[in-house]
Amino acid sequence: GPPSGRLRSIRESTLEGLDTAARKGKHGGRPPVITDDMLQTVLRRRSGGESV
């Protein structure tokens, strides 16, 4: 089948891993570049139909 489905699952698992790491307070030794406020703004824009 098309690779898009596989790419999507890889991306989702990557996002899940990042989310889990963030909850544990691990950010590769660096502070997160994307703050919660930024993330919420992006999610709101995406759900609102705007291009990011």
Please explain how this structure is put together.
The chain is mostly helical and 52 residues long. It has 2 helices and no strands. The protein has one domain (4-47). The chain has helices at residues 4-24, 36-47. The protein is flat, with a radius of gyration of 14 Å. The protein starts with a helix and ends in a 5-residue tail after the last helix. 0% of the residues are buried. The mean pLDDT is 75.
Task: Please estimate the helix content.
Answer: 55-70%
**What is the domain tally?**
1
Discrete helix count: 2
Compressed to H and E, one letter per element, the order equals: HH
The fraction of residues assigned to DSSP E strands is: under 5%
Radius of gyration over C-alpha positions, nearest whole angstrom = 14 Å
What's the story with the biggest beta sheet?
none
Keywords:
mainly alpha, 52 residues
Reconstruct the topology from this structure:
Layout (H helix, E strand, L loop, with lengths): L3 H21 L11 H12 L5
